Amino acid sequence: MKPIENGGPWLGPLGRDADVVVASRVRLARNLAGFPFTNRASTMQRREVVSMVRDRAQGASWGRMLGWVDLQECPAEQRTQMVERHLVSKQFAASDAPRAVGISADETLSVMVNEEDHLRIQAMYSGLRIDECFAAATAFDRGAESALDFAWHHRWGYLTACPTNVGCGIRVSVMLHLPALRLTSELDRVRRAAKDLHLALRGFHGEGSEPMGDFYQLSNQITLGMRDEEVVGELRDRIIPQVIRYERLARETYRSKAPAAARDRFIRAAALLTHSRLMQLDEAMKLLGRLRLGIASGLTEAIDSTLVHRLLLQVQPAHLALARPNDPMETLEQQAAARAALLRDALAPLRASIG
Amino acid sequence: MKCDQCDKPAVVHETVISGGVQMTVHLCAEHAVVQLNHVPAGAPIAELLAAHLTGQRHQPACGGCGMTLAEFRKHNLAGCSACFDALAPVIDQAIQRAQGGATAHCGRAPARRDDAEARHAYRARLLKDLEQAVAAERYEVAAQVRNALREVDGLPSGHQA
User: Fold this and answer.
1) What is the CB neighbour count within 10 angstroms for residue A211?
2) Residue B6 banded pLDDT, cuts 50, 70, 90
3) Predicted TM-score of the model (pTM)
4) Which of A265, B2, B92, B135 is most buried, by CB atoms within 10 Å?
5) Per-residue pLDDT averaged across A14-26, rounded?
């Protein structure tokens, strides 16, 4: 895999609603008929699944755009980098069984083979672009379907290892930046409402991860009894716009009630990011989140959100090590020093503008 | 007559007819407990019930991948396509619980669902499983695999006699 230069789908055009929405993703879970699912498959069978999917994809118009990475031959640092870039899951990177991932050159499409299901087809774009994600994932799915037999049940639809994905196997998730909802203590209400609507609100890296920098992933939980288009439509037309409205309202409330505090938070974040000599990951994420809110609120024009998104990736440990190959990275302190240096360099225009 | 599994005298003789496969097994008291979940005469009722319950939990419920109900309950993961019929109604409940009460798929289906090559591969795998199950004298598994084979061949699957 190429080291991150332009940063993949995250750093594409911000698009509409970019003040709140960071990125959109659609994932489809599929299994091959005639093979046990990954959790029961032998090493031989897993190898067979990898080569079957890869070979058929490589020879076909629907799959030729993918470059393949064999995870067993991939160094740990690069595996971590793919996790940080949301191209593969943490569990997938950590497992030691035969598995592979196909990634398109622009990194908008990735296909994990032998994750919890044989295929996890994922499309990701910056901003609120669920339809584009759905179209890209579905195009690959339909193509794959012409060359591979997917496990199917007359009652349960597409079969997946976990009952939570059975049916259409779709997971739509939108990465949202919700600092004002947290500041105004409204986030719990959103979380409860999401639960009632069978949606999950998770942290920056999805399942089991902590919220960092007020970034959250909102995704559907129901995959059965609803057409995939309905799942997409409900999030796109009903749920996400409502969360965006809530967050904007909370931002307005916060700004009008405490304009000096809002400005102070931004200036402090900018000052720390542009002057610190040591910066731990969680602090960097928190401060970058505040910077993003400041940009969305019009407090600076020196930098834009795309730079913040790029830095959100570049401050992660594996990206950091690859971005600054000459810096020592053995200890957390050395890592923190490299991270602080990277942030100071990248945010130089901001330092000049805040005086 | 000696036990099928060891040199001790067989005390349990059972004919198992399942899915069209008829097999007579001869087992000593110990192997009867292990293989047939056979409870020796005079065992206390609690033991009898326990043997029944644990036997059910730990015996392979799926002929396709050997998944037991206990394993499914522990990890909440199906092992293969056949699990969705073999583990019913337990898996049905798990799905409906996870899916907010939804009871069936609606919407898109794969364009081609009946691929001769995949069916052939699946059939070959089942035949191998059947051979292994018979060799290991796991007759219940053998009967289930036999059922799966009949389904692949488009024949009605047999029911336990």
Assistant:
1) 18
2) confident
3) 0.78
4) A265
5) 90
Residue A227 and residue B75: Cβ atoms within 8 Å?
Answer: no
B161 — pLDDT class (breaks 50, 70, 90): very low
Residue A200 three-state SS: strand
pLDDT digits (tens, 9 = 90+) for B49-105: 665 555 555 677 898 899 999 999 999 999 999 999 999 889 999 999 999 988 889
pLDDT tens for B11-37 read 777 776 555 566 677 877 777 765 655
User: Contact A327/A338 with Cβ under 8 angstroms?
Assistant: yes
- Separation in Å, CA A48 to CA A32, A93, A349: 11, 19, 52
Residue A39 carries which DSSP code?
Answer: G
Asked whether the beta carbons of residue A163 and residue B107 sit closer than 8 angstroms, the reply is no
Q: 3-state DSSP call for residue A177?
A: strand
Looking at this protein, which amino acid is placed at residue A67? Answer: G
Cα A157 from chain centroid (whole Å):
27
A152 contacts chain B (CB < 8 A): yes
* Inter-chain touch A40–B79, beta carbons under 8 Å: yes
Residue A297: CB atoms within 10 Å: 18
Is the Cβ of B79 closer than 8 Å to some Cβ of chain A? yes
SS3 breakdown of chain A: % helix, strand, coil, rounded to 5? 50, 15, 35
Q: Annotate B9-37 with three-state secondary structure.
A: ECCEEEEEEECCEEEEEEECHHHHHHHHC
Longest dimension (CA), chain B: 59
Chain A: closest CA distance from residue B153 (Å):
14
Question: Quick one: pLDDT band at residue A296, thresholds 50, 70, 90?
Answer: very high
Residues 6+ apart with CB under 8 A from A318: A77, A78, A80, A81, A83, A84
Whether residue B89 is preceded by a cis peptide bond, meaning omega within 30 degrees of 0, is yes
A51 touches chain B (CB under 8 A): no
Chain B residues closer than 8 Å to A163 by CB: 76, 78, 91, 94-95, 97-99
- Residues of chain B numbered 118-137 and touching chain A (CB < 8 Å): 118-119, 121-122, 125
What pLDDT is recorded for position A174?
A: 96
